[in-house]
## 1
Amino acid sequence: MNTETDRERGVLSPADRAYLLGDREMSHEQSKRNAEARIRRRIHAAMLDFDLLLHTLPEKDRKQLFERTTTDEEFLDGLRAAVAFLYLGTETYGVDFEDVLEPAIRSSEEYLAATDRAANVSVDVTFDVETTVESSLEGVATRLDAGEPVTPRELFSLVMHGEYDTRDHERIRLVGTDDEQTADGFLERLASYLGGDLDQTSDSQAVIRLDAATGNRDDDY
């Protein structure tokens, strides 16, 4: 998660970022509600802007923007976060992500075929997600309290649930850190989110050393 607040304004202003990160206090409840409403309006307006960008942004500008995905890891992380934000929002609140993804990919592939290959194509998009429950959050918490190691994804899920306080630990042991499903930089971001330092003891094991004075944040990962 990028916690730099003074970046050039995007969807969020520097003040918006500071508020979401808990670095900006609101003196009145109404001020807090106003800030949250403003952020929601900006996100809504940004979604509408993408329709304009898709159809009017020159190819040369799109090329310059997305060429950086090969060298700018923060930009690539932002792309992943954007997809995750859309997936969580649609799946949680009434729209199947598939209904967003499939027509978007189909029309894009048709456009690429027409412009790059001067061809008309038929596009078949298959989107399938299979989720297997591997451990309960209660079980993960019990293992942590006993000083036993957990996987990065188990720790992430427990922290995101929001009811477990890692401040009770001076360090958290992790196993399975070489799992191919653990994206590059994930461990570092998780440790930073918890206010700790990452010590990679081997390819498959690591330790997050926590600062006892730093608590969990309430903002989104």
## 2
Amino acid sequence: MEVKKIVDLSLPLNNDLPIFPGDPEPNIRPATTIAKHGYNTSYLDIGSHTGTHVDAPFHFREEGKTIDRLPLEHFMGEGVLIPVTSKQGGQAITLDDASPYMEKLGPKKIVLFHTGWTKYLGQEEYFNHPYVDIEVVVKMLDLGVRTFLIDADPPNGEDFPVHEAITVVNGIIGENFTNFDQITFDNPLIIALPLKVANGDGSPVRAVAIKC
């Protein structure tokens, strides 16, 4: 396979990452240094949903699959980019927005909702992101989609209908992705493999879009 272009879809893993209220704050710091020990090692104190990450169904459902028990195929596949950059904070992405792209969807496809919201990274507005209307998700699930890359639920942090709908079928939600605007080619191969965390509810990922 010839790789013509790679787009990095991940935020840098550092202590300044936006954290959902109540989640563990990242604390990345040196454990050893070359000057003192002859080699560099770091402590990585992070939550399972820090930075660019994926949610396992177990995140919301006791009977849901954990991150280490999910098929790796869920984390890689042909991406379908849906541009919704006109959406405002707290505004829903509707069936009217998504319907032109429905014919491209099916099993093993990965949906990427391009809101452009990382322009607010480091600002309070970052948490007031657009979200996906539950009707859109239900339609996509009916078409066989199982992986969705967006901060999917309303930003009030009180209701999680999309998480509930996706995790009940052991689907995947990816959050805090970036650089969707750099996917300027058709049929990108999306890879967002999680760490193999035993009994994990989620994991940071290094995600890429590949032009082959």
